[in-house]
Specification:
118 residues, mainly beta, 7-stranded mixed sheet, 0% helix
């Protein structure tokens, strides 16, 4: 059983910063990638940032230059540093883990709320 535990969400003013963390535990074989998705009210879940096992990263256009994803392979933890936050960044942020060499598995965290408001 794999568990993803997220932390670091909260309320922040526009222009502020937050750092999200997601720690994976359990029987994990061959992590291929970890990432963050978000879902705002009334909208579909969307990719925010993703980092592969080879440390290749990709970001949503809306967060490029403001958010940075990183990972600690020893701790099986992924981080999302969010700077210059905007009200439109308000959403529930979900941690995602892709694993396996065939079959492939995907795991999700329970989500952490990020609210950007004055």
């Amino acid at each position: 059983q794999v568990q993803l535990v997220e932390s670091g969400g909260g309320l922040v003013q526009p222009g502020g910063s937050l750092r999200l963390s997601c720690a994976a535990s359990g029987r994990i074989s061959s992590i291929n990638a970890m990432g963050w998705y978000r879902q705002a009210p009334g909208k579909q879940r969307e990719l925010v940032a993703r980092i592969s096992s080879r440390v290749a990263t990709n970001y949503a256009d809306s967060v490029k230059g403001r958010f940075t994803i990183s990972r600690d392979n020893v701790k099986n933890t992924v981080y999302l540093q969010m700077n210059s936050l905007k009200p439109e960044d308000t959403a529930v942020y979900y941690c995602n883990l892709e694993a396996g060499r065939g079959p492939f598995y995907e795991y999700w965290g329970q989500g952490t709320q990020v609210t950007v408001s004055s």
